[in-house]
């Protein structure tokens, strides 16, 4: 029996209040789509079958270099975090898995698995952390980890990744995501070539420890914490890594890890074409790695990324099965609400991309009709697919209006009474 944090009866009661309006909206959209020969139920079924993993680190309030302002009922440990994650899934029915970060979420794997099973949650990719030090480690990562000049430090970082694989095996994960902060802060500080050679050799050791049915994702990021150069700085380097390591290695695209105005959807297309797209960390950004809620700043870009994914799905692109994960930091919202909203925005982009008339689009492309090609995309994007999203949730026991239902449930006040208040504080710079 799944341990429910918000009862099915409560969700059904909230849905009942919205049932008439929802039924009417769904019927109206169904009629509209039928005029374009689109079966709304087929789209709803696809959307209901689309899932995205929630990051364990996303359910606590984030923070910046300047300060952190915790909210009420902050999770105390991974087991509280898993409970918060299960609330998101109960309401959205879109997030049945959680992505763990080690050592932040370190706990007895048996207990993790038992708790996950009880809550009806599985585990997505494991994330290693060699970008910060723990109090008990022998070698510091101040000057790098997998690419460090010192072999013992590199070995320690490799061993940590292997430990992440071991924990992941015990809880049913099938992938390891490696992001490192290695780089340099001054020209001349590091030899680019030697540093990358060391990184590739260390990653080769991790790759050797990967079970046959696992995938290894490497995540590129342009800068930060290193500000002059970064070892895995862009998708080109990332592609070289995946090619060098082998067939179980893939590139992970975190949407916030690019320069502003980068054509991310085109990067996605290239990685798909060459069979190396591993998956995503969804979020949004305005200036840098802002970790804002998915679709909150540039929803059209999110749609364009999904347009590439649906295109690949439609043509049965080789080796195409990307992992979908969220990677966000919430500073001014209730993290549960932000993650609910992001899961919806991600599904929204998928639903809109499913509505693109691909045969017509191809016709305009072949005729060099730029305006009508663009209009074909816009037509799908402009469709209000909210009734489809709501119906996909409702059919699987979720909420027609998940944020309103969450607020009405009183979950935040309940956990605030159980979990001691945490103090805020300054960030890293003061
Ligand atoms: C790095 C990153 C990476 C980390 C996470 C906490 O900026 O995107 O995925 O694991 O943030
Ligand atoms: Mn990320
Ligand atoms: Mn990031």
UniProtKB/TrEMBL annotation:
This is L-rhamnose isomerase/sugar isomerase. InterPro entries: L-rhamnose_isomerase (IPR050337), L_rhamnose_iso (IPR013451), Xyl_isomerase-like_sf (IPR036237). The keyword Membrane does not apply. It comes from Ciceribacter lividus. It comes from the Bacteria. Keywords: Isomerase, Manganese, Metal-binding. Coiled coil: none annotated. One of its GO terms (molecular function) is metal ion binding.
């Amino acid at each position: 029996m799944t341990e429910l944090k918000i009862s099915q009866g409560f969700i059904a009661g909230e849905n009942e209040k919205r049932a008439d309006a929802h039924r009417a909206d769904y019927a109206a959209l169904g009629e509209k789509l039928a005029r374009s020969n689109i079966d709304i139920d087929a789209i709803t079924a696809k959307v209901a079958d689309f899932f995205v993993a929630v990051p364990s680190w996303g359910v606590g309030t984030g923070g910046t270099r300047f300060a952190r302002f915790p909210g009420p009922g902050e999770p105390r440990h991974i087991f509280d975090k898993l409970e918060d994650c299960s609330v998101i899934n109960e309401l959205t029915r879109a997030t049945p898995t959680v992505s763990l970060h080690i050592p932040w979420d370190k706990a007895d794997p048996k207990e993790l698995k038992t708790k996950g099973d009880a809550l009806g949650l599985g585990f997505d990719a494991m994330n290693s952390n060699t970008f910060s030090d723990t109090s008990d480690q022998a070698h510091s990562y101040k000057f790098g980890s997998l690419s460090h000049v010192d072999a013992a430090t590199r070995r320690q970082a490799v061993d940590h990744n292997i430990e992440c694989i071991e924990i992941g095996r015990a809880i049913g994960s099938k992938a390891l995501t490696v992001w490192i902060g290695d780089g340099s802060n001054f020209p001349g500080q590091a030899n680019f070539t030697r540093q990358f050679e060391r990184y590739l050799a260390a990653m080769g050791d991790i790759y050797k420890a990967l079970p046959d049915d696992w995938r290894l994702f490497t995540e590129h990021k342009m800068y930060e914490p290193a500000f002059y150069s970064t070892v895995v700085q862009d998708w080109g380097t990332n592609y070289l890594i995946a090619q060098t390591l082998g067939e179980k290695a893939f590139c992970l695209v975190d949407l916030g890890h690019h320069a502003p105005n980068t054509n991310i959807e085109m990067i996605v297309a290239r990685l798909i074409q060459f069979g190396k797209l591993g998956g995503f960390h969804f979020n949004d950004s305005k200036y840098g790695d802002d970790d804002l809620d998915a679709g909150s700043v540039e929803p059209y870009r999110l749609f364009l990324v999904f347009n590439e994914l649906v295109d690949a799905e439609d043509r049965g692109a080789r080796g195409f099965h990307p992992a979908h994960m969220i990677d966000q930091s919430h500073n001014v919202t209730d993290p549960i609400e932000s993650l609910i909203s992001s899961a919806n925005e991600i599904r929204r982009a998928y639903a809109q991309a499913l509505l693109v008339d691909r045969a017509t689009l191809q016709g305009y492309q072949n005729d060099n009709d730029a305006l009508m090609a663009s209009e074909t995309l816009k037509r799908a994007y402009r469709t209000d697919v909210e009734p489809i999203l709501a119906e996909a949730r409702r059919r699987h026991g979720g909420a027609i209006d998940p944020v309103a239902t969450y607020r009405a449930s009183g979950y935040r006040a309940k956990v605030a009474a159980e979990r001691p208040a945490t103090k805020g504080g300054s960030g890293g710079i003061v």
